[in-house]
């Protein structure tokens, strides 16, 4: 994200859990140095503001991380931003994970949303990603899941996790006072490789990675409906502003493809979100001109 300011059976299960957590630096936010969680880059600025702080009680352990949109003495707004990995450059992994989970609380102001983004790389090239937008207030620790979609058959060797709050209206970066509390991040085990659509009728709702990606300026977005549904497919920029509505209305069961032409838009990161009944999913795409 770009903002103005610039991680015998019982024994086996126990070890497996440690290995999963070990993939994410300081996944329970227990270790802190000089006011920052170890293994994560933040938007904390010495002498200006600390949107990222250590808090209790936690979902487990002794502490969690709190991210709050703050206003400085100079009336600048600083959103909370966490980027996993030293210097924000990501951290090594060695498995093809299916999702990222964690536990959160969220208190929004205005149209703010809590966003978690996962990017996976192999030899420096992007091979998978996932994102989730959470807009509803939640005062007790609840689990979220970010499904990860792959667009190659490679096994990732590096991951980046980005966590922040943004305003969906685009009028400001975010509303001061909005905050999240986050704890216990964990990657799931690998899922089956999915490449393209099968023929016939989908057995569940699907949203695929756009192709090509990155693109210039036209890309295709594919999705599947297991039954006739009211569908909305919307494009957002990285500030959460709605850019285009590609689909809005009732569509028939089956696989569908829609084109997105970004000829009038600047290069950058964009999100596309599908809503079909109770199914909702968000994915990322990159426009490079």
Condensed summary:
The chain is mostly beta strands and 289 residues long.
Structural write-up:
With 289 residues, the protein is mostly beta strands. The chain folds into two domains: 9-187, Jelly Rolls (Sandwich); 206-287, Immunoglobulin-like (Sandwich), CATH 2.60.40.2550. It is built from one helix and 23 strands. The strands form six sheets. Strands 3, 8, 9, 11, 12, 14 and 15 form a seven-stranded antiparallel β-sheet that branches. It starts with 8 loop residues before the first helix and ends with a strand. Residues 1-22 and 191-196 have low confidence and may be disordered.
Q: Sum up the overall morphology in one term.
A: globular
CATH class of the largest domain: Mainly Beta
Order of helices and strands: HEEEEEEEEEEEEEEEEEEEEEEE
The CATH architecture designation of the largest domain is Sandwich
How would the blueprint of this fold be written?
Blueprint: H1 9-22, E1 32-33, E2 36-37, E3 40-42, E4 52-55, E5 64-68, E6 70-71, E7 77-78, E8 81-84, E9 91-92, E10 99-107, E11 112-122, E12 125-134, E13 138-147, E14 149-150, E15 158-167, E16 179-187, E17 206-207, E18 218-225, E19 229-237, E20 242-251, E21 254-261, E22 268-276, E23 279-287
Antiparallel strand pairs: 1-2, 3-8, 4-5, 5-16, 6-7, 8-15, 9-15, 10-13, 10-16, 11-12, 11-15, 12-14, 17-18, 18-21, 19-20, 19-22, 22-23
């Amino acid at each position: 994200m770009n903002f103005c300011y610039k991680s015998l059976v019982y024994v086996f299960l126990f070890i497996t859990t440690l290995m999963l957590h070990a993939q994410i630096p300081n996944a329970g936010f227990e270790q802190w140095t000089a006011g920052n969680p170890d293994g994560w880059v933040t938007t904390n600025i010495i002498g200006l503001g600390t949107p990222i702080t250590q808090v209790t009680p936690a979902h487990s352990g002794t502490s969690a991380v709190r991210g709050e949109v703050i206003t400085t003495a100079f009336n600048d707004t600083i959103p909370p931003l966490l980027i996993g990995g030293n210097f924000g450059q990501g951290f090594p992994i060695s498995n093809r994970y299916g999702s990222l989970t964690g536990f959160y609380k969220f208190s929004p102001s205005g149209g703010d949303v809590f966003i978690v983004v996962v990017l996976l790389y192999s030899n420096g090239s992007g091979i998978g990603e996932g994102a989730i937008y959470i807009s509803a207030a939640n005062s007790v620790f609840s689990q979220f899941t970010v499904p990860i979609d792959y667009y190659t058959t490679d096994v990732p060797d590096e991951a980046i996790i980005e966590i922040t709050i943004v305003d969906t209206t685009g009028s400001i970066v975010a509303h001061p006072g909005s905050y999240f509390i986050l704890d216990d991040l964990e990657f799931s085990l690998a899922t089956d490789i999915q490449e393209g659509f099968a023929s016939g009728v989908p057995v569940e709702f699907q949203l695929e990675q756009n192709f090509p990606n990155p693109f210039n300026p036209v890309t295709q977005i594919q999705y599947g409906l297991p039954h006739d549904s009211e569908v909305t497919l919307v494009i957002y920029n990285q500030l959460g502003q709605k850019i285009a509505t590609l689909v809005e209305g009732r569509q028939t069961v089956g696989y569908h493809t829609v084109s997105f032409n970004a000829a009038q838009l600047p290069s950058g990161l964009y999100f596309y979100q599908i809503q079909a009944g109770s199914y909702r999913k968000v994915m990322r795409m990159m426009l490079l001109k």
